[in-house]
Every structure is written in structure tokens, then in C-alpha cells.
Amino acid sequence: MSTSLNAREAAPHIGTLASGPLGTIADVDGVTVGHCTIDQGALQTGVTVIRPHRDDPFVHKVPAAVSVINGFGKSIGLVQVEELGTLETPIALTNTFGVGAMAQAQIRAAISANPQIGREWSTVNPLVFECNDGYLNDIQALAVTEQHFVDAFDAANAHVVSGSVGAGRGMSCFDLKGGIGNASRVVRVTGRDYTVGALVLANFGRLPMLTLDGAPLGRVLTERAAKQAAAASEASAKPEQGSIIMIVATDAPLDSRQLKRLSLRAAAGLARTGSVYGHGSGDLALAFSTAYSVPHDADTITLPPLVADARLDPLFRACADSVEQAIIDALWSATPVTGRDGHQRLSLHDSVPDLAQLLKLKPIH
User: Fold this and answer.
1) How many domains does the chain have?
2) Is the pLDDT reported for residue 311 higher than 70?
3) From the candidates 27, 175, 251, 283, which is the catalytic residue?
4) Is residue 363 in some structural domain?
5) pTM: predicted TM-score of the whole model, two decimal places
6) Is 289 a catalytic site residue?
7) Domain containing 331 — which CATH number?
8) Structure confidence by residue, pLDDT tens digits, 64-114
9) Rounded-to-integer distance, Cα 269 and Cα 323, Å
């Protein structure tokens, strides 16, 4: 039976920056998240939708940018984000073979809200990220449908759940159960407090690589499990496969060029957990700002005063810490899942009953 824990009370806090009151991406005002989870025997998958605000995202676009840390992925919509520097749909997360259904659902939703799309107006750029959950989920069943996007979209709220939910249902992380993770950090820049929030879809890494708050936990667990040195060496030699999607939100006024720089710092948080961005890992980071929106039909755009580049370091630090914390949150919050062909992933807590001792934490009650 899985251990019941309050992740944000029990998990180690990364760095010295304070988190927001919720400890999730929803600490960035206006951001909401919804999940739709499929838990039906061999079907262990789902959809997660991130809404940057409650307004129409096509009419009121938000500035954004993407960094491809390692491009082994099948996401859709990144090219236009890179070119125009805005989001015009919610962000959808799902499994690799669900990308098409999610894109179609986003297109239908945008047309329903704005019938001019594709006629008097330009077409819409659906934005979908994916990870391969095929170890636990029968991905060939193509279980994810447009209705699952609608359900996740309708469920979006500020009470964000982490773990084996939504798109994270079938995901694995460091050979353990992975999934959705959240975190936030608050920093002071030029006399004002800004929030950086992160949501990750964690589906990457091999166990020997796992580093948790600087502790070589994966190495300890691998050595503990190996009966012979050769067995440990063989486990270490397996290639890193999987993916991670890192979504970073902030209320700091940044333009798309600055958000590109911010998104790249997600890689620092990812690396701290032990990832080396392996050949078969699709590692993507997207950052957006809620400080202002870009109207769809406008002759000119007035930007607020932007944070100067020389003052971005606190935001960079907050991004790295938030992503690392969110990955820990995904591991900490996940519950065990048994799926396709009896495949199982145990949670971190089920695998490491003496986790608190290994990490030199206070006893967990």
C-alpha cells in the first residue's frame, strides 16, 4: 500500500528562495490547471491542460518562448511559438499518440469561440506536448480523445494536483513512478516581488542517475538492489530514455526573447536531478508571462516596462529551483500504477521506506 504523504510538507525544499502559498504553478496569478485521468486496466494515461488566464487565449495571446534541450519528441505548435513568441491556445499535455486528438480539440475549441479563425482571421496554432507512457499504458489503443481535452479544460482551477494524474498517469521517472510535478518560487527584482511557477510532466531518467536534493539516491538504491557489482554496472549502462516537459510561468514582465532565456534555465533544474539529456529523451521547456497580453487584432502593441536583462538572474535562479522542485514533487506525489501486460511502477516511497533517513530529513509522520 502506498504511503500517504503531504508532498509539500515532507519533500526537501530546494534552495533558499521561498515558495508561493500553493507551491504550484498556480501561484502565478491567473494560471489554472485541469486533469483528465484514464485508469482502466491496460489504459493508464490522460490529459493535462494549462490555461495561462481565463480569457480567450486566441484573442488575448500571452508572450512565450520554447527551448528544445533534446529534441526527441513529437510535440506540435513549437515552430510558430518560436517564430511569433506568443501562445494562442491553452497548453495540452498527453501521451505521444494522443497529440493529434489534442490538436484537433484545441482547433475546434478555438473555432467555436471565434468563427472567423481560418476565414477572415488567420488559422490557430494548437500547442501540445507529449511523453511516451507506453510502458504502463497501451499506447496503441489510442485511448485519448478530444473529449478528454474538453474535460481537462473544464476542470482547470487553481488547486493543482500532482502525481499519477492527468497526462502523468502512465509516466515513469528514474525507473519509478513519475508524472505531474509542481513548484513555485518568489523573488524580488528591482523592488518588486515576482513569482515563477513550474509544472513538469516527468517521464525520464534511469535509477542509478537519480539525485535528490544533492543526495546520490539512485546510486544508493542501485547498489542496494545489486547482488553483484556486474549487475550494478549493467543497470548503469542502460541508456536514458523517456522525456520531460517543463512549463514555466511567471508574472514578471518579460518579452519573448527574455522568456527564451528563462526557459533555457529549466535545463539547470533538470540536470541537478541527474539527467544528462540522453539520446532518447525529449526534453522541452516552455516559458510564458502573464504580465500582459498581446491582442490578436491590433495595429500597434504597447508593452509594459520590461525587466532589464541585467536584472534577470533572480528569475533564472527561481526557474532552476522550481523545475528541480517540481521533479521532486512528481516523484514524491506519485502513487504506484499497474498497467499494460502487468507492468508496474512503484512510487518513490514504496521503493525507499527509509527515504527520510537517506535524505537526512525529519521523520515523516
Assistant:
1) 1
2) yes
3) 283
4) no
5) 0.93
6) no
7) 3.60.70.12
8) 999 999 999 999 999 999 999 999 999 999 999 999 999 999 999 999 999
9) 5
- Domain span holding position 58: 15-205+240-346
| pLDDT tens digits, one per residue of 115-140 | 999 999 999 999 999 999 999 999 99
Catalytic residue among 67, 243, 322, 347: 243
State the DSSP H helix or E strand holding residue 64, giving kind and residue range, or none if neither: strand 60-71
Which three cell numbers, joined as nine digits, stand for 189? Answer: 527584482
Residue 123 inside a domain? The answer is yes
Give the sign of the dihedral formed by CA 289, CA 295, CA 299, CA 300.
Answer: negative
Number of neighbouring beta carbons within 10 Å of residue 3: 13
Grid cell locating 55? 480569457
CA dihedral sign of residues 73, 55, 46, 327? positive
Residue 263 annotated as catalytic: no
- Please list the helix, strand and coil fractions of the chain in percent, rounded to the nearest 5, in that order: 35, 25, 40
Q: Is 333 left (phi over 0), alpha (psi -120 to 50) or beta?
A: alpha
Return d(Cα 226, Cα 290) in angstroms, integer.
48
Q: What one-letter code names the amino acid at 120? A: E
Identify the bridge partners of residue 44 per DSSP, sorted by sequence position. Answer: 39
CA distance 323 to 266: 6
Q: Which of 75, 263, 275, 281 is catalytic?
A: 281
Among this protein's residues, is 283 annotated catalytic?
yes
CA dist 61 and 70 (Å) reads 27
Within-domain flag for 92: yes
Asked whether residue 280 is assigned to any structural domain, the reply reads yes
Q: Which residue has the cell 508574472?
A: 251
